[in-house]
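Quick start: what a row looks like.
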Amino acid sequence: MLSVEMPTTYYTTTKKYDLNFPNLENDIDVDVVIIGGGFSGVNTGLELIERGVKSIAILETNYIGFGGSGRNGGHIMAGIGHDLDRIKKFVGEDGLNTIFEISDSGSRIIKERIQKYNIDADVVWGYGYLGFNNRQAKLLRQWEKEYRSINNDVEIEYLEGEAVKKIVGSDVYTCALKHMGNGHFHSLNMLLGSAKAFTEQGGKIFEYSPAVEVTYGETIKVRTPKGSVKAKKLLWSCGAFLNRLEPYLDKKTINTYAFQLMTEPLSDEIIHRISPIRGAFSDVRPVIDYYRVTNENRLLFGSATAITEYIPSDLKKWNRDLMLKVFPYLKDTHVDLAWGGPMECSATLFPQIGNHPEHKNVFFVQGYSGFGVTPSHVISQVIADGMMEDSKYWDVISNIPKASVWGKEHFKSLLLTTAKFIHQLEGYANGRR
Protein backbone atom coordinates (compact mmCIF):
# COMPACT_ATOMS: atom_id res chain seq x y z
CA MET A 1 0.00 0.00 0.00
CA LEU A 2 0.97 3.65 -0.33
CA SER A 3 2.79 5.16 2.62
CA VAL A 4 -0.18 7.48 3.11
CA GLU A 5 -2.55 4.58 3.79
CA MET A 6 -0.74 2.16 6.11
CA PRO A 7 2.42 4.12 6.85
CA THR A 8 5.61 3.26 8.61
CA THR A 9 6.63 6.54 10.22
CA TYR A 10 9.41 7.93 12.37
CA TYR A 11 7.05 7.55 15.30
CA THR A 12 6.16 3.89 14.77
CA THR A 13 9.85 2.98 14.38
CA THR A 14 10.99 4.78 17.56
CA LYS A 15 8.08 4.42 19.98
CA LYS A 16 9.01 3.61 23.58
CA TYR A 17 5.67 2.23 24.80
CA ASP A 18 4.88 -1.35 23.85
CA LEU A 19 1.15 -1.11 24.45
CA ASN A 20 -1.38 -3.46 22.94
CA PHE A 21 -5.07 -3.21 23.66
CA PRO A 22 -7.63 -5.97 23.06
CA ASN A 23 -10.37 -6.20 20.47
CA LEU A 24 -13.89 -5.70 21.77
CA GLU A 25 -15.34 -9.21 21.74
CA ASN A 26 -18.36 -8.88 24.02
CA ASP A 27 -21.17 -6.50 24.97
CA ILE A 28 -20.37 -3.82 27.55
CA ASP A 29 -22.12 -0.89 29.22
CA VAL A 30 -20.30 2.38 30.00
CA ASP A 31 -21.13 6.00 30.74
CA VAL A 32 -19.18 7.40 27.76
CA VAL A 33 -18.05 5.79 24.52
CA ILE A 34 -15.45 7.54 22.36
CA ILE A 35 -14.96 6.58 18.72
CA GLY A 36 -11.40 7.37 17.66
CA GLY A 37 -8.09 6.72 19.42
CA GLY A 38 -6.08 9.81 18.54
CA PHE A 39 -5.12 12.81 20.65
CA SER A 40 -8.67 14.18 20.94
CA GLY A 41 -10.21 10.83 21.87
CA VAL A 42 -7.55 9.76 24.37
CA ASN A 43 -7.11 13.22 25.87
CA THR A 44 -10.84 13.72 26.33
CA GLY A 45 -11.08 10.29 27.94
CA LEU A 46 -8.27 11.19 30.32
CA GLU A 47 -9.83 14.58 31.09
CA LEU A 48 -13.16 12.89 31.92
CA ILE A 49 -11.49 10.30 34.15
CA GLU A 50 -9.71 13.07 36.02
CA ARG A 51 -13.14 14.66 36.56
CA GLY A 52 -14.50 11.44 38.08
CA VAL A 53 -16.10 9.69 35.09
CA LYS A 54 -14.61 6.22 35.42
CA SER A 55 -16.71 4.18 32.99
CA ILE A 56 -15.32 5.11 29.56
CA ALA A 57 -14.52 3.03 26.48
CA ILE A 58 -12.46 4.17 23.48
CA LEU A 59 -12.94 2.30 20.19
CA GLU A 60 -10.16 2.50 17.61
CA THR A 61 -10.45 1.04 14.11
CA ASN A 62 -6.72 0.35 13.84
CA TYR A 63 -4.12 0.99 16.56
CA ILE A 64 -3.84 3.95 18.92
CA GLY A 65 -2.19 6.77 16.97
CA PHE A 66 -2.87 5.32 13.51
CA GLY A 67 -4.24 8.63 12.21
CA GLY A 68 -2.91 12.15 12.32
CA SER A 69 -1.76 11.82 15.92
CA GLY A 70 0.92 9.38 14.79
CA ARG A 71 1.90 10.99 11.47
CA ASN A 72 2.49 14.66 12.28
CA GLY A 73 5.45 16.97 12.82
CA GLY A 74 5.36 16.72 16.61
CA HIS A 75 5.27 20.50 17.08
CA ILE A 76 4.16 22.17 20.30
CA MET A 77 2.87 25.47 18.93
CA ALA A 78 0.88 28.48 20.07
CA GLY A 79 -2.70 29.13 19.08
CA ILE A 80 -5.89 27.34 18.05
CA GLY A 81 -6.85 27.31 14.38
CA HIS A 82 -5.06 29.11 11.58
CA ASP A 83 -6.32 32.69 12.05
CA LEU A 84 -8.69 33.73 14.82
CA ASP A 85 -9.94 36.57 12.62
CA ARG A 86 -11.62 33.93 10.44
CA ILE A 87 -14.18 33.29 13.19
CA LYS A 88 -14.54 36.82 14.57
CA LYS A 89 -17.76 37.44 12.64
CA PHE A 90 -19.30 34.41 14.35
CA VAL A 91 -18.19 35.01 17.94
CA GLY A 92 -17.74 38.77 18.17
CA GLU A 93 -15.01 40.63 20.03
CA ASP A 94 -15.92 39.14 23.43
CA GLY A 95 -15.98 35.61 22.05
CA LEU A 96 -12.64 36.14 20.35
CA ASN A 97 -11.15 37.34 23.64
CA THR A 98 -12.58 34.28 25.39
CA ILE A 99 -10.89 31.95 22.89
CA PHE A 100 -7.66 33.96 23.10
CA GLU A 101 -7.59 33.26 26.86
CA ILE A 102 -6.90 29.58 26.17
CA SER A 103 -5.23 29.86 22.75
CA ASP A 104 -1.71 29.48 24.13
CA SER A 105 -2.42 27.03 26.95
CA GLY A 106 -1.60 23.87 24.98
CA SER A 107 2.10 23.87 25.86
CA ARG A 108 1.28 24.28 29.56
CA ILE A 109 -1.21 21.39 29.46
CA ILE A 110 1.35 19.17 27.70
CA LYS A 111 4.08 20.08 30.17
CA GLU A 112 1.83 19.39 33.17
CA ARG A 113 0.64 16.06 31.77
CA ILE A 114 4.18 14.89 31.07
CA GLN A 115 5.15 15.73 34.64
CA LYS A 116 2.01 14.28 36.24
CA TYR A 117 2.19 10.92 34.47
CA ASN A 118 5.96 10.74 33.87
CA ILE A 119 5.46 10.43 30.10
CA ASP A 120 8.64 9.77 28.13
CA ALA A 121 7.99 11.92 25.03
CA ASP A 122 11.43 13.42 24.17
CA VAL A 123 10.09 16.92 24.80
CA VAL A 124 12.39 19.83 23.86
CA TRP A 125 11.50 23.48 24.40
CA GLY A 126 12.40 25.99 21.71
CA TYR A 127 10.49 27.15 18.63
CA GLY A 128 10.97 29.50 15.69
CA TYR A 129 8.22 31.09 13.59
CA LEU A 130 9.95 32.15 10.37
CA GLY A 131 9.39 34.83 7.74
CA PHE A 132 10.75 35.71 4.30
CA ASN A 133 9.79 39.38 3.81
CA ASN A 134 8.67 42.66 5.39
CA ARG A 135 4.96 41.73 5.48
CA GLN A 136 5.75 38.60 7.43
CA ALA A 137 8.13 40.57 9.66
CA LYS A 138 5.26 42.87 10.58
CA LEU A 139 3.10 39.85 11.42
CA LEU A 140 5.83 38.32 13.60
CA ARG A 141 6.26 41.58 15.52
CA GLN A 142 2.52 41.57 16.16
CA TRP A 143 2.71 37.97 17.39
CA GLU A 144 5.58 38.92 19.67
CA LYS A 145 3.36 41.47 21.44
CA GLU A 146 0.41 39.06 21.66
CA TYR A 147 2.44 36.12 22.96
CA ARG A 148 4.27 38.27 25.51
CA SER A 149 0.95 39.55 26.82
CA ILE A 150 0.01 36.02 27.96
CA ASN A 151 3.52 34.60 28.59
CA ASN A 152 5.29 36.86 31.07
CA ASP A 153 7.69 34.13 32.21
CA VAL A 154 8.71 32.79 28.77
CA GLU A 155 11.57 33.98 26.55
CA ILE A 156 10.00 35.43 23.40
CA GLU A 157 12.20 37.45 21.05
CA TYR A 158 11.81 38.89 17.56
CA LEU A 159 14.93 38.33 15.41
CA GLU A 160 15.95 39.88 12.12
CA GLY A 161 18.75 39.51 9.57
CA GLU A 162 21.81 37.56 10.71
CA ALA A 163 20.30 37.20 14.19
CA VAL A 164 17.88 34.63 12.74
CA LYS A 165 20.80 32.19 12.61
CA LYS A 166 20.87 32.16 16.41
CA ILE A 167 18.05 29.65 16.12
CA VAL A 168 18.08 28.21 12.57
CA GLY A 169 20.88 27.72 10.07
CA SER A 170 19.30 28.78 6.80
CA ASP A 171 19.81 31.73 4.47
CA VAL A 172 16.21 31.83 3.20
CA TYR A 173 14.67 33.62 6.17
CA THR A 174 14.87 37.34 6.91
CA CYS A 175 13.05 37.34 10.25
CA ALA A 176 11.93 35.03 13.03
CA LEU A 177 10.09 34.89 16.32
CA LYS A 178 11.87 32.81 18.93
CA HIS A 179 9.39 31.29 21.42
CA MET A 180 10.99 29.18 24.16
CA GLY A 181 7.60 28.26 25.62
CA ASN A 182 6.84 26.18 22.53
CA GLY A 183 8.86 23.25 21.21
CA HIS A 184 8.47 19.67 20.02
CA PHE A 185 8.01 16.10 21.21
CA HIS A 186 7.56 12.51 20.07
CA SER A 187 3.82 12.71 19.49
CA LEU A 188 3.13 8.97 19.43
CA ASN A 189 4.96 8.45 22.73
CA MET A 190 2.97 11.37 24.16
CA LEU A 191 -0.27 9.78 22.99
CA LEU A 192 0.66 6.31 24.25
CA GLY A 193 1.79 7.70 27.59
CA SER A 194 -1.58 9.42 27.94
CA ALA A 195 -3.38 6.21 26.90
CA LYS A 196 -1.45 4.32 29.58
CA ALA A 197 -2.50 6.88 32.20
CA PHE A 198 -6.12 6.57 31.00
CA THR A 199 -6.24 2.78 31.30
CA GLU A 200 -4.40 2.73 34.64
CA GLN A 201 -7.28 4.79 36.04
CA GLY A 202 -9.95 2.41 34.80
CA GLY A 203 -10.55 3.54 31.23
CA LYS A 204 -10.94 0.89 28.56
CA ILE A 205 -9.33 0.98 25.08
CA PHE A 206 -10.18 -1.46 22.31
CA GLU A 207 -7.98 -1.55 19.21
CA TYR A 208 -8.95 -3.02 15.83
CA SER A 209 -12.57 -2.54 16.88
CA PRO A 210 -14.23 -0.33 14.27
CA ALA A 211 -17.70 1.05 14.83
CA VAL A 212 -19.82 -0.52 12.10
CA GLU A 213 -23.22 0.71 13.29
CA VAL A 214 -24.26 3.46 15.68
CA THR A 215 -27.81 3.73 17.02
CA TYR A 216 -28.77 6.97 18.76
CA GLY A 217 -31.25 7.34 21.59
CA GLU A 218 -31.37 7.93 25.32
CA THR A 219 -29.04 4.95 25.42
CA ILE A 220 -26.55 4.91 22.54
CA LYS A 221 -25.45 1.61 21.05
CA VAL A 222 -22.24 1.20 19.06
CA ARG A 223 -21.80 -2.15 17.33
CA THR A 224 -18.36 -3.50 16.36
CA PRO A 225 -17.58 -6.67 14.37
CA LYS A 226 -17.39 -8.80 17.53
CA GLY A 227 -19.19 -6.86 20.24
CA SER A 228 -21.09 -3.73 21.23
CA VAL A 229 -21.04 -0.80 23.63
CA LYS A 230 -24.04 0.83 25.27
CA ALA A 231 -23.45 4.30 26.67
CA LYS A 232 -25.19 7.40 27.95
CA LYS A 233 -22.96 9.71 25.91
CA LEU A 234 -20.90 9.41 22.72
CA LEU A 235 -17.97 11.40 21.40
CA TRP A 236 -17.10 11.21 17.71
CA SER A 237 -13.35 11.80 17.43
CA CYS A 238 -12.37 10.26 14.11
CA GLY A 239 -10.64 13.16 12.36
CA ALA A 240 -9.90 12.36 8.74
CA PHE A 241 -10.95 8.72 9.23
CA LEU A 242 -14.68 9.16 9.79
CA ASN A 243 -15.34 7.22 6.57
CA ARG A 244 -18.87 8.61 6.16
CA LEU A 245 -20.11 6.75 9.24
CA GLU A 246 -21.85 9.90 10.59
CA PRO A 247 -23.55 11.77 7.70
CA TYR A 248 -23.99 15.08 9.54
CA LEU A 249 -20.29 15.26 10.45
CA ASP A 250 -19.11 13.96 7.10
CA LYS A 251 -20.61 17.00 5.36
CA LYS A 252 -18.66 19.49 7.47
CA THR A 253 -15.06 18.72 6.50
CA ILE A 254 -12.93 17.74 3.50
CA ASN A 255 -9.69 15.74 3.57
CA THR A 256 -6.41 16.96 2.17
CA TYR A 257 -2.89 15.52 2.69
CA ALA A 258 0.37 16.40 4.39
CA PHE A 259 3.73 14.66 3.92
CA GLN A 260 6.88 14.20 6.01
CA LEU A 261 10.37 12.77 5.71
CA MET A 262 12.99 11.55 8.15
CA THR A 263 16.69 11.86 7.33
CA GLU A 264 19.44 9.52 8.34
CA PRO A 265 21.11 10.34 11.70
CA LEU A 266 23.24 13.47 11.35
CA SER A 267 26.40 14.58 13.10
CA ASP A 268 26.23 16.86 16.13
CA GLU A 269 27.94 19.53 14.01
CA ILE A 270 25.26 19.42 11.30
CA ILE A 271 22.44 19.35 13.85
CA HIS A 272 23.91 22.41 15.58
CA ARG A 273 24.12 24.16 12.23
CA ILE A 274 20.48 23.34 11.46
CA SER A 275 19.38 24.54 14.88
CA PRO A 276 21.59 25.82 17.71
CA ILE A 277 18.57 25.47 20.02
CA ARG A 278 17.61 21.97 18.72
CA GLY A 279 14.19 23.43 18.14
CA ALA A 280 11.15 23.09 15.93
CA PHE A 281 10.29 25.55 13.17
CA SER A 282 7.57 26.59 10.77
CA ASP A 283 7.29 29.49 8.39
CA VAL A 284 4.15 31.62 8.40
CA ARG A 285 2.99 31.14 4.80
CA PRO A 286 -0.57 29.91 4.12
CA VAL A 287 0.88 26.42 3.48
CA ILE A 288 3.88 26.00 5.74
CA ASP A 289 7.12 24.08 5.73
CA TYR A 290 7.68 22.66 9.20
CA TYR A 291 10.60 20.77 10.65
CA ARG A 292 12.52 19.84 13.78
CA VAL A 293 15.49 17.86 14.95
CA THR A 294 14.81 14.63 16.79
CA ASN A 295 16.29 12.96 19.82
CA GLU A 296 18.30 10.71 17.48
CA ASN A 297 19.87 13.64 15.53
CA ARG A 298 17.58 13.28 12.54
CA LEU A 299 15.77 16.06 10.71
CA LEU A 300 12.01 15.59 10.43
CA PHE A 301 10.69 17.79 7.60
CA GLY A 302 7.13 18.20 6.37
CA SER A 303 4.78 20.23 4.20
CA ALA A 304 1.76 19.96 1.90
CA THR A 305 1.08 20.89 -1.69
CA ALA A 306 0.81 24.68 -1.91
CA ILE A 307 -1.94 25.03 -4.52
CA THR A 308 -2.65 21.95 -6.65
CA GLU A 309 -4.12 19.04 -4.70
CA TYR A 310 -2.33 15.76 -5.44
CA ILE A 311 -0.35 12.98 -3.76
CA PRO A 312 3.28 12.95 -4.98
CA SER A 313 4.29 9.64 -6.53
CA ASP A 314 7.70 9.79 -4.83
CA LEU A 315 7.30 11.18 -1.31
CA LYS A 316 11.01 11.01 -0.55
CA LYS A 317 11.95 13.11 -3.57
CA TRP A 318 9.08 15.55 -3.12
CA ASN A 319 9.92 16.26 0.53
CA ARG A 320 13.66 16.25 -0.12
CA ASP A 321 13.37 18.94 -2.80
CA LEU A 322 11.58 21.21 -0.31
CA MET A 323 14.12 20.45 2.41
CA LEU A 324 17.04 21.37 0.14
CA LYS A 325 15.52 24.78 -0.60
CA VAL A 326 15.87 25.52 3.12
CA PHE A 327 19.03 23.54 3.85
CA PRO A 328 21.03 23.12 0.61
CA TYR A 329 24.02 21.81 2.60
CA LEU A 330 22.04 18.60 3.22
CA LYS A 331 22.31 17.63 -0.47
CA ASP A 332 24.33 14.50 0.35
CA THR A 333 22.04 13.47 3.22
CA HIS A 334 20.11 10.25 2.80
CA VAL A 335 16.36 10.20 3.41
CA ASP A 336 15.53 7.07 5.38
CA LEU A 337 11.76 7.32 5.34
CA ALA A 338 8.87 9.37 3.99
CA TRP A 339 5.17 9.12 4.72
CA GLY A 340 1.96 11.10 4.64
CA GLY A 341 -1.65 11.06 5.63
CA PRO A 342 -5.02 12.75 5.35
CA MET A 343 -6.06 15.68 7.49
CA GLU A 344 -9.62 16.94 7.68
CA CYS A 345 -10.20 20.64 7.06
CA SER A 346 -13.15 22.80 8.02
CA ALA A 347 -14.31 25.80 6.01
CA THR A 348 -13.01 28.17 8.71
CA LEU A 349 -9.80 26.18 9.31
CA PHE A 350 -10.87 26.18 12.98
CA PRO A 351 -11.70 23.07 15.06
CA GLN A 352 -15.34 22.04 15.14
CA ILE A 353 -16.89 20.89 18.41
CA GLY A 354 -20.50 20.57 19.44
CA ASN A 355 -23.54 18.35 19.86
CA HIS A 356 -25.33 16.52 17.11
CA PRO A 357 -28.28 18.81 16.25
CA GLU A 358 -30.80 16.02 16.89
CA HIS A 359 -29.10 14.25 19.79
CA LYS A 360 -27.77 16.26 22.72
CA ASN A 361 -25.96 13.26 24.20
CA VAL A 362 -23.86 12.91 21.02
CA PHE A 363 -20.74 15.10 20.94
CA PHE A 364 -18.08 15.57 18.27
CA VAL A 365 -14.68 17.09 17.52
CA GLN A 366 -13.10 17.43 14.08
CA GLY A 367 -11.66 19.92 11.61
CA TYR A 368 -8.25 20.74 13.09
CA SER A 369 -7.15 21.50 9.52
CA GLY A 370 -3.59 20.25 9.93
CA PHE A 371 -3.07 22.13 13.18
CA GLY A 372 -4.14 19.68 15.87
CA VAL A 373 -1.25 18.31 17.93
CA THR A 374 -1.19 21.11 20.50
CA PRO A 375 -4.74 22.50 20.12
CA SER A 376 -6.21 19.01 20.69
CA HIS A 377 -4.91 19.15 24.26
CA VAL A 378 -6.78 22.42 24.79
CA ILE A 379 -9.93 21.43 22.92
CA SER A 380 -10.15 18.14 24.84
CA GLN A 381 -10.45 20.08 28.09
CA VAL A 382 -13.20 22.17 26.53
CA ILE A 383 -15.05 19.06 25.31
CA ALA A 384 -14.77 17.37 28.71
CA ASP A 385 -16.24 20.50 30.32
CA GLY A 386 -19.02 20.50 27.73
CA MET A 387 -19.81 16.82 28.32
CA MET A 388 -19.95 17.36 32.09
CA GLU A 389 -21.50 20.83 32.22
CA ASP A 390 -21.24 23.80 29.93
CA SER A 391 -18.32 26.21 30.25
CA LYS A 392 -17.84 29.59 28.62
CA TYR A 393 -15.23 28.09 26.28
CA TRP A 394 -17.57 25.28 25.24
CA ASP A 395 -20.42 27.74 24.72
CA VAL A 396 -18.37 30.03 22.46
CA ILE A 397 -16.56 27.41 20.38
CA SER A 398 -19.46 24.97 20.00
CA ASN A 399 -21.70 27.75 18.66
CA ILE A 400 -19.40 28.61 15.74
CA PRO A 401 -21.36 27.62 12.60
CA LYS A 402 -20.19 24.50 10.78
CA ALA A 403 -20.49 25.06 7.06
CA SER A 404 -21.09 22.06 4.84
CA VAL A 405 -18.62 21.25 2.05
CA TRP A 406 -20.77 20.60 -1.00
CA GLY A 407 -19.64 18.52 -3.95
CA LYS A 408 -16.62 16.88 -2.35
CA GLU A 409 -17.73 13.41 -3.45
CA HIS A 410 -17.29 14.34 -7.13
CA PHE A 411 -15.08 17.45 -7.19
CA LYS A 412 -12.73 16.98 -4.24
CA SER A 413 -9.46 17.80 -6.04
CA LEU A 414 -10.99 20.84 -7.76
CA LEU A 415 -12.48 22.13 -4.50
CA LEU A 416 -9.20 21.74 -2.64
CA THR A 417 -7.12 23.31 -5.39
CA THR A 418 -9.50 26.27 -5.53
CA ALA A 419 -9.48 26.63 -1.74
CA LYS A 420 -5.67 26.53 -1.62
CA PHE A 421 -5.44 29.17 -4.33
CA ILE A 422 -7.82 31.45 -2.42
CA HIS A 423 -5.92 30.73 0.81
CA GLN A 424 -2.70 31.85 -0.90
CA LEU A 425 -4.34 35.09 -2.09
CA GLU A 426 -5.65 35.75 1.42
CA GLY A 427 -2.08 35.42 2.61
CA TYR A 428 -1.21 38.75 1.01
CA ALA A 429 -3.95 40.47 2.98
CA ASN A 430 -3.11 38.97 6.36
CA GLY A 431 0.67 39.24 6.12
CA ARG A 432 1.45 35.58 5.49
CA ARG A 433 2.71 35.98 1.90
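That is the whole record. The chain is about 35% helix and 25% strand. The longest strand covers residues 335-345.
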